[in-house]
Structures are given as structure tokens and as C-alpha cells.
Design brief:
homodimer, 280 residues, alpha/beta, Arc Repressor Mutant, subunit A, Rossmann fold, 2 domains, 6-stranded mixed sheet, 3-stranded antiparallel sheet, 10 helices, 11 strands, 26% strand, globular
Chain lengths: 280, 280
């Protein structure tokens, strides 16, 4: 009998934690596990205590006829620190500098293992704001934007660099990009379902913020509102960006010789208790 | 005491299933849960039985000094069927046709909730082949490729449409695209770490297969080998593709009037027992 309950607890823990952030109906769970709702509630209470006391996450219950439970995993602070350390090291690795002074990091940006952790950080930062969509401009910010969207349980909106016939009619905007010192453009399909939405704009890299500003304007034309800007790396200079507010995970202080220095920004250091691990 | 074990089982189930496919060390787990390895082994046996009997996944054990456990989640067949149904419906939704005869589906492709399921299907299909990297050409195939890479626990390689200064020196290839009837190009940074790798090429859409063929050639120049081609949608015509072998999740039979018909391909139908749900 006890063995029976133990196995049910295992199955229930897996079912709940397989879909973080999703509401699972108590009715569905009780059918799936062939158990009365009252028994289920007792099991859920024990699971809640076990996960919370171990710092593994939280379980929220929704009462009433459409009652259910939602699992919210805790941040894996140790794993985040580990991956931050890799980014800090690789972004200052002279071998990654191209002859033209760019940093080759596409391989890191397109590693789900590495970038998911960073997406989780942005999601943690912007969840309280209330986000309906995560937007980015193609191409290198896409994995980070998708990871943040997944963690926030929302869809992503793709701003294109050029007008695509395959997207039907589009709205476009031209703007001056600080990093490339040339006129860039971005466009969004009129069919993109963003009207009235609250948007988190995400990108891999920010210098003066021209791209984020252009995205803000373009999305504004769709009746959507950019409620947050989150980037993986922002340069310290220029201090004055053209967007009012943004959150970077890493700050990059450029140097004329070599790749300069990179470190986690204040909110990230606080979140993952960075100081302690700096000594290592 | 029994309550104590129950809570430990819950925590252990969460720890194992939080990182599907990853090997967790028994030493780390026993430290994390303050329990002897012998007790841990008993717990893991019970968890294995519970998950496998409920069809929730498998636990593999690695013995020896570096002993550990790996959790492999079972395919959620019901959820896959649900999302396949949405894709079949939306790909044949006349409202999605642009005036130029293209289908607007970018919003579906960039929905983590929807595309992750499809990536899992491709991963399931190609796992036995042994894949070191998943590659795609920007832009619309990126979310599917990332999802497949995540499920296979490998990184993604991004083929660019044009030469980017920011990637350093690149190799490029020109080819004739069947769908746009014009010369396209793709390039890959020389620094991309793919040498000797076994590559799964992924894309959202395939007609004659020219893009997949070009990717095969380009990656071949890097000493990498395309060991599989997986796409979300392939058109039935032309029957003869320019790649020898590929796996599509959905097949699209075009029609001169309207969007035609779409259905899951044979291997997908078999995997998710599609016939039964066709009646609904």
C-alpha cells in the first residue's frame, strides 16, 4: 500500500514537473492516476512540501471547479553561474576575435544548453512586467528570444531584416545602426498577431540601442507596446542609450587592445550571488 | 520515516526529470539528498518502476566509479497528435494564403509550445543515426532546428544566407532554389566547429530539396557529413527530390485552387497512432 503511494507520488511529480508553468487540471490528473481527488490533494501537499523544502520549485494551486496545479521550477543558481562563467571567458577569448575586430560567438548563441540558461534569466527578470510576446530581429538573437519566450510560456514575434514576399504585406522601418554605422531596416508582416500585446524585445547584443528603439517604433505602429528590453551583452559605451531602459545580462567594457573585459551586470550578480564565485 | 522517504522520492524524481538525457552522477545525487548510495539505488529502482509502468519514460543506469542515471522521457503521443492537428488545420487555412500564393505560418514556426513538439518528433526519428550537430539555413527553420538539437542534446550550426563580416572568413555556395526559381547562396564561418561531425539538416519546408542538397555540399567542404535531413513540411511534387533521403513530418499536396491538403507522413502516423484520431 505504501509502495503503491510511493509510485503514485513519483508519477505525479513527473507529470507536474514535465510542464513547468502550465496549469494541470485536477480532474485530468485524478483520471490519469486512477485516484480520488481527495487523495490527489494529499499527494500534492506532500509534493509541494518536498519540492519547496529542497529548493526545487513551487506548486501553486487553483481552487474551484476548474481547479488545478502549476509547477514553477526554482532557478538553478549553480548551473546559471557555471554558464555565465563560460560566457565571460569566451567573450574575452582573443582567439574569437576576427581580423575585422568582431567577436565570433554564433556557436555559443546557437547552443540550446548554453542559451536556455540565459533565456531563463531574462524571463525571471521580466515575468513581473507581464509579457504577451517576445520579439527579436533576425538572426543571432533568435535562440535567446525563443528561450525567454519558452520560459515565459508565450510565443515569439520575428522582425525580418527585409521584406519577404512569403510573409504577405509588411510594415518596414529604416534606422541608423550605431554598431554598423549604416542604415538598417526591419519589417513585420501585417498578419503578425501582436495587436495590443505587451512585448519583451530581446537581442544578443546592444551598443547604442538603435535596433531596440526601431523595434519599439515598428511594434508601436502595430498597436503593440514594448514593455521591456533584454539583451545578452551590452557595451558600457555609449553610456547614454537611445532606449530609456534595458536589462543586460553581461556588460562589455571594450579595449583598444584585445577583447576587453566582460562581467555579469548588477541584477544578475545579485540573483546568482556572483561575488562568492568570483574568487574561484 | 516513511514520510521522509516519500519526500526524498519526490525530490529525486524532480532532479532526474529536470534534465532529460543528461547523465546525473550518483555521487552528486547522494550528496544533494544527504543519503547513502545504497539507499539511493533502492530509490532509483522504485522510481524506474513507477515511471516505466506509467509510460512516463525510462531510466538508464551507468555502473562503475563514474556511475550515474539518465532519464529519457516517453513521447507524449496525445500532445503530439493535438499539435499535429493544429498544423494540419492551419496549413490548409485559406486565410493564411497571401495574395502571392505563399502561406503565412511564421507565427506557428516561432511558437515554442507548438514547434518543440515537432522538434521532438525529428529527434526521435534521427536519434538512432547518431547526430553531433543540427544545422539549418536562416531563418524560418531555426526554431525547429533548435528544438531538435535540444531534444538530441547537441548544438546547432547556423548556415547564413549571406557572408557576414561579424563571422570572420566564410565558405559560400550558390545553388538554384526550386521554390523561388532563382540563385540562392549560403555560407558558413570557417570557425564553425563542425569538422568530422555527423549533421542532421533541418528545415521548415522542402520542395525539390535544393537547399538541403546545397547544405550537404557546403558542410562536406568542412569535413562534416549530413547523416539525415528532416523537415516540417515537404511537398508531394516533385516526387524525385535532389537529396537521396529525407524525413518530413507533414506532406503537402498542392492544389491550384486553395491551399490543398496536408497530412502527417507514414512514420509519424505510425509513431502517434494517427488513424484512430482521424475520425474525430
Amino acid at each position: 500500500m505504501s509502495d503503491h503511494r510511493q509510485k503514485r507520488l513519483v508519477a505525479l511529480t513527473r507529470l507536474i514537473s514535465a510542464n513547468p508553468g502550465a496549469q494541470l487540471s485536477l480532474t485530468d490528473l485524478s483520471h490519469r492516476l486512477h485516484v480520488a481527488k481527495s487523495t490527489l490533494s494529499e499527494d500534492l501537499l506532500l509534493i509541494k512540501e518536498a519540492l519547496e523544502s529542497q529548493g526545487l520549485g513551487h506548486i501553486d494551486s487553483q481552487v474551484g471547479a476548474a481547479g488545478g496545479v502549476t509547477f514553477r521550477p526554482a532557478l538553478d543558481v549553480e548551473r546559471i553561474r557555471e554558464h555565465l562563467t563560460v560566457f565571460v571567458r569566451e567573450l574575452t577569448n582573443p582567439d574569437r576575435l576576427t581580423p575585422d575586430g568582431f567577436l565570433y560567438v554564433t556557436d555559443l548563441l546557437f547552443s540550446p544548453e548554453r542559451i536556455d540558461v540565459m533565456g531563463t534569466l531574462l524571463a525571471e527578470r521580466f515575468r513581473p512586467v507581464g509579457v504577451d510576446y517576445v520579439a527579436t530581429v533576425e538572426t543571432r538573437g533568435i535562440p535567446l528570444a525563443l528561450s525567454a519566450a519558452r520560459a515565459l510560456m508565450v510565443d515569439m514575434v520575428l522582425l525580418r531584416r527585409d521584406n519577404r514576399l512569403s510573409e504577405g504585406s509588411s510594415l518596414s522601418i529604416n534606422y541608423l545602426s550605431g554598431s554598423s554605422r549604416r542604415v538598417q531596416s526591419m519589417s513585420l508582416a501585417r498578419r503578425a498577431p501582436v495587436r495590443g500585446g505587451r512585448i519583451l524585445f530581446v537581442d544578443d547584443f546592444m551598443q547604442a540601442g538603435g535596433t531596440a528603439r526601431a523595434a519599439q517604433d515598428l511594434l508601436g505602429d502595430f498597436g503593440a507596446q514594448v514593455v521591456g528590453v533584454g539583451v545578452l551583452v551590452a557595451t558600457r559605451e555609449p553610456k547614454q542609450k537611445v532606449v530609456d531602459d534595458y536589462s543586460a545580462i553581461l556588460e562589455w567594457v571594450r579595449s583598444d587592445e584585445g577583447p576587453g573585459t566582460v562581467f555579469p551586470t548588477e541584477w544578475v550578480q545579485r540573483l546568482v550571488e556572483w561575488e562568492g564565485s568570483l574568487e574561484s
